[in-house]
Amino acid sequence: MSVLNFQHMSTKTFLRTFAFASIFFLSSPMEVTSAEKMTLGFVITNWSTAMYETLFMDECSGGPTPGNYEIWEASVTPEVRRSYPVLLFSQLRHINNRGRNGLNVCDHPTSFDDPSLEIIEGKYAYGANLDGNKHGRATSTSCEHKNFTGLNGEEGIDNQMYRLMGCVEAWKSYGHIENNANSHRLSSGLGMILIEVTDVENERNDESVSVSFFRGIGSYNLDSTGNPLPYASYGIDHENGRARYGDTVMGKIVNGVLTTKSADVHLPFFGNYQYMNQLFRDMQLELELSDDGEPMTGLITGYYGVDQFYSYVRGMLSTFPNRHKFSCPAIYVAAHQLADGHPDPETGECTTLSSAFNIQAISAFINHPDYD
Amino acid sequence: MKNTGHRLPSRRAVLRGVLAGGTVSVGLPFLGSMLDSSGKVLASGAPLPVRFGTWFWGLGHTPGHAIEEKASSGFGIDFIGECQALSTHKEIINYFDRFNTPLDGRSNFPHYTGWIASRTGTVPDWQEEIAKPTYDLLIADRIGTQRRFKTIDIACTGNPRNSYSARSTYNRSAAEISPSDFYARLFGPEFVDPNNAEFIPDPRTMVRRSVLSAVTEDRQQLMRQLGASDRAQLDEYFTSIRELEVQLQVQLQKPAPNEACSAIAPPKDDTFLGSKTGVEISRVEETHKSFARILAMAVACNQTAVFNVVFSENLSSLRKLGESVTHHSLSHEEPTDPELGVQQQTSWFNTRSMDALAFFISTLSSIREGDGTLLDNVLLLAGSETSFAKTHSVDAIPFMTVGKAGGRIKTGFHINGNGDPITRVGLTAMQVMGVPIDSWGSRSLLTSKTISEILA
Amino acid sequence: MACFSLTLQKLVCFGFLFLAWLGLSACGPAEPKTDAPAPDMRRLTEDQYRNIIADVFGTQITVSGRFDPLVRTEGLLAVAAWNTSVSSTGIMQYEEIAQSIATQVLSKENRETYALCSGVSYTAFDESCARKFLAKVGRVLLRRPLTKDELTARITIARDSANTLGKFYAGLSFGLISLLVDPEFLFITDFTESDPARSNAIRLTAFSKAARLSFLLWNTTPDDKLLRAAESGELHSRDGLNREVNRLMASTRLKTGLRAFISDMLNFDEFDSLEKDSIIYPAFGAAVVRDAREQTLRTITDHLVTRNGDYRDLFTTKKTFMSRPLGMVYRVRVKAPDNVWESYEFAPDDPRIGIQGHLSFLALNAHPGRSSPTLRGKGIRSMLLCQKIPDPPADVDFSGFNNPESLGKTARERLLAHATNSACIGCHRIMDPIGLALENYDGAGQFRGVENDAEINSSGELDGIAFSDSTGLGQALHDNPAIPTCLVNRLYAYASGRTFTAKSDWLTYLNKVFADGGYRVTDLLKRIATSTTFYAVSSPHNLDQTFESASNIIHFD
Predict the structure, then answer these.
(1) Closest Cα in chain B, distance from residue C51 (Å)
(2) Which of B233, B241, B319 to mutate to test the interface with C (most CBs of C within 10 A)?
(3) How large is the greatest C-alpha to C-alpha distance in chain C, in angstroms?
(4) The complex's ipTM?
(5) From CA C248, how far away is CA C241, in angstroms rounded?
(6) B153 DSSP 8-state letter
(7) A263 and A143 part of one domain
(8) pLDDT digits (tens, 9 = 90+) for B404-423
(9) Residue A141, in any domain of the structure
């Protein structure tokens, strides 16, 4: 029986407890001094789809997936191919407009049957166990899918995004999709994500902190080699004092690693000339903190909407018609097939893909607008 | 040889020498014979001018790792270790070893006494004291006034204060630090190509000259109102004005054609160097290469007869990117490797300095002039401010002549000074360049012993 | 009745006399008699040259070129200017710069603004336009009106040039060039005249007084009002001088003048060649170099001028200014946008304190890739305390020390050998213990708690006062008697080119004025600017042999 279970306590015991408690509290200084609460700030300096890669692409048994160009080339005679000696912009559009009756295959992904996307068949992936189980069978909140094993042997890793895009060369660490996006973000400051951690009592271990996500305004401060410098000050995107993003979640810090509780979070996005307001469902952040200005690495996991993702793919292919070895129809079909989260209540089809993204971040000061 | 265009030293220059301490004396017959010994001529019949230059690097050599020791002077230099890169040029170099700097009880100001003593002939009483003009100015007084630029001073370190050419403590030049600015100044709109058939004196130059004349017209009136020390200060100013007038006058005359002079492309924009300052080694080397090319052509086009190049400064802060130590701090702090017998990293910088000198020499010799190359008509005096930097030693400060000085000197000799004063080197250089002196230097540095082994 | 009124009269008289005496003594001690130096001249510094062009022609006229370097003497470049002339390469530069300025001023776009003669023929020489223009610029550039003959001579130059070049404005530009290379422009000269108040004595001309005053307070050429005060002779009267001093000191330009002095005293010319290793200190780029200098100058002028604060508090103040680039190096939040400065105050528990805690001091007195307790200690000794450190002995073997691979993780450990080697200890014990208190700041001035994983001990000592950290150092500097006396010494040397021994009556007087007034630099400046000594000159043959002119400096002890 707990000493604080007043219901069953005798008056005597109660009084004794009360007296003891009073002495205890009254013997300390009169004002209750809470430890000073700190605020930590970070800015994300690199964001990419978390890809487990082997040297010889063992994870893609069929090799890298063909893109629009390869599919088109396979569908025409060598003479026709040779009649396009240099792939000019106008000709590239031809390649996208290879759908039925000249439809653009990215705008109408079901209008053409591309060869199936090569998808990841490997065992390992980065990510988290988002659906809470290791079997991968359908549940009320998820669709059937294969689980991965984490790099430290953890089972039940859900990362259908990786399964989907892991054999698309452009998406790999040596491909240009993520590299272009990152370098453009660094040089322009667009799509900057700020992370603010408040109510921090101890930077190494704190059971309860608040974590908020904002869109940063301004440019990154780069050193002479183009790397962003820590401890710069950034303003947040706001309208009349109200932050445009600003979702807040609970978190904790354990041995210098910040983690957040699963929650839906909106994050800004800019990359490859596409702007998006991304929604991450059941998002979790894990970030290994440093206090000396050194870059920090982390992982963002969560469910990413299929439509949201396809709109990115489609938008890019409008801008870069075809050098990226991916095919809109194949991705569209595969994405719907591989989706494993948030089933549509009516159709039962899953609408989101479990995913994981590597991030790098550095310390920053986050300035809130001075509004009353 | 009357049409050399070289005038006898002005009365003012001689008098200044006399007033400055009585260690400069006039020897006119000597002068004539020096001029006669220049045998080469230009196609036009005018003799090829002999130019003088200095090339400075900081922190000397590691003793025993620059040249093979020789007990006595003689033909043949064996460059080793840090000076490997100079081996290919040894035929055109004279190396001066074991010339010392007696201090007569004065302090050895680390990294200052060495260069001041060797270039001015006088040991300083305090760190920045320049009691007498540096030899390049004495030579320029003699041969420099008939050129568009009396001297050209260059620093590859990005710091205009890195200049070892000074008339006195308070009379110093600022060095050029930007190759593209230098190019614009030399070969910009005011450049007159000596090989142009047509020459029209620029009226603007005439006007500039007459304006300077006018400015000095009422100098007597001004001088009368001043005290003695101010008169000296003002006199320096008027001397400088007068020299500029003469230089402008030169630009009003058709320059002698010189086949060696040809157009060169401007350097890359300086932004490739990063910031304008900085002594990170690869940056200094790039700057040096850029300067060398432009300077060599400027000399070939007779824009100047005297130049000074500073590769690294006397306290050489050359460094490698990402390293917290500099050449100078290494020279003191780095322990000597017991097997190799050198301070490895220090030696590395010393070697790079000599590599740069070798490059400079190649640049000069890459320009054809007359029957040979530009280098044949240059006397380049390369030297440092210390021999063994770790101990700040000013004995055996390494010095070299490079080039044939128009045939006035022999080359390829290793000269052992046997402890003689280092001023013998400067004296010899000045005499070769036609400065009318029999002796030079103060106190124990006073010498009249020319290094005759190298005279042609 | 008569008796009573007589007593009353006496009482009133006595009362007035008493009040007068009170008033006089309330002004402090009287200026001591000091040997006046011979008239002298100094060459314009680069800053002065640029300020003058900006003031006369506006900031849109660019000045680019090299200026002969000044050799720091007695701690100041300003002192060297009194000994410096113009080298032959220097005069080429001046002439080229003059050409560039004149071309810009009389360019098609600008000529109407400056020459104020509209509708003038492009080719024919217009004498009245030339006269107006050259008289106007001549007066400001030579810091006195041209005489009739002088003006005629300049007009002749312009006319002859115009005839040769066939263009009026080109000719006129050479009139301007002749002024810009004139020795009376390039040199600030003490011109003298006989002093009507004393027989066989000379005094500075009013124009030379004006120049001396203007360059001290504003670091630029006398403005129109000051020139008129000189022309009218007002400047020779006490009232006239006081009026002009007050006017100049009330202006925001006083800060410009003070900045020039502070920059000289703190060796800020070294910023021109300051670089930090971009891998070791990636945040320390060009913007930081530029802002670090500005931060300290702003802090000092704000404290000394705007707030009229105690000079000694500069070493304990937490108040400063911050910009975005600096925020990253100091690791503090900056709200202001790019290129805007905001006030900033370090928290009470932040160890950063005083101007010695600014990046400007810490980074300038360090190496490109690491800190230097010795350089920082030396910097404080020589710049702030006016104490000379002898040069190191020529044959020292340093390889026992400072080798990061051998002994010691922190600089303190590595410099232990300084403290034990008898050849080193004499000088190093007056430098290292000061700089070691600043070891929490790395070579770029960034804070660090450890070096090579070892905790940094920032205790130190200054002239017998021990302290446990840099806050203690700040207080020790504040309390050190040499701090204010050094400032006085430097300020007067900067103003006049003269240094004195510490025991001289003049310095004793200035020090007392400074102390009594609460160490307010503006008050000290005013006292100097209104003193007789500052303007006093004597004929060379009147000189006492023991007095040394600026070219033979007495070392301050």
Answers:
(1) 20
(2) B233
(3) 100
(4) 0.85
(5) 11
(6) E
(7) yes
(8) 999 999 999 999 999 999 99
(9) yes
**Residue A6: left if φ>0, alpha if ψ -120 to 50, beta else—which one?**
alpha
Q: Estimate the share of chain B in helix, then strand, then coil, as percent rounded to the nearest 5.
A: 40, 15, 45
Domain count, chain C: 1
Q: What is the pTM of this model?
A: 0.85
Give which of C386, C346, C385 is closest to C479, Cα–Cα: C385
Do the domain assignments include residue C414?
yes
Compute the nearest-CA separation of A213 from chain C (Å). Answer: 18
In a domain, C369, yes or no: yes
Q: Is the dihedral of CA C84, C89, C93, C98 positive or negative?
A: positive
The number of domains in chain A is 2
Q: How far is C270 from chain B (nearest CA, A)?
A: 10
Question: Is A372 part of any domain?
Answer: no
Give me the total of CB pairs closer than 8 Å, taking one residue from chain A and one from chain C.
43
Contact C328 A229 (CB under 8 A): yes
- CA dist list (Å): A23 to A4, A17, A32: 16, 10, 15
CA angle C391, C395, C401 (to 5 degrees): 85
Domain co-membership, A300 together with A348: yes
User: CB A367 to CB C335 under 8 A?
Assistant: yes
**Both structure tokens of C135:** 């008289």
A81-121 pLDDT per residue, tens: 787 766 666 666 677 777 778 788 888 888 777 888 888 98
Residue-number span of the structural domain to which C389 is assigned: 262-479
Collect all residues of chain C within an 8 Å Cβ-Cβ radius of residue B230: 39-41, 189
CB contact under 8 A, C282 and A231: no
State whether A224 and C282 contact (CB < 8 Å).
yes
Looking at the domain assignment, is residue C238 inside a domain? no
Query: pLDDT tens digits, residue range A235-286?
Result: 999 988 888 899 999 999 999 999 999 999 999 999 988 999 999 999 999 9
Chain B interface includes C185 (CB < 8 A): no
Query: What b/e string do you get for B299-334 counting C-beta neighbours within 10 Å, with b at 16 or more?
Result: bbbbbbbbbbbbbbbbbbbbbbeebbbbbbbbbbbb
SS3 sequence of chain A: CCCCCHHHCCHHHHHHHHHHHHHHHHCCCCCCCCCCCEEEEEEEEEEEECCCCCCCCCCCCCCCCCCHHHHHHHHCCHHHHHCCCCCCHHHHHHHHCCCHHHCCCCCCHHHCCCCCCCCCCCCECCCECCCCCCCCCCECCECCCCCEECCCCCCCEECHHHHHHCCCHHHCCCCHHHHHHHHHHHHHCCCCEEEEEEEECCCCCEEEEEEEEEEEECCCCECCCCCECCCEEEEECEECCEECCCCEEEEEEECCEEEECCEEEEEEEEECCEEEEEEEEEEEEEEECCCCCCCEEEEEEEEEEHHHHHHHHHHHHHHCCCCCCCCHHHHHHHHHHHCCEEECCCCCCEEEEEEEEEEEEEEEEEECCCCC
B339's tokens: 């097997």
C532 to chain B, closest Cα gap in Å: 21
Q: Are the beta carbons of B357 and B61 closer than 8 angstroms? A: no
User: Among the CATH numbers 1.10.10, 3.40.720, 1.10.540, 3.40.1710, which is that of B2-193+273-454?
Assistant: 3.40.720
Range of the domain at A17: 1-33
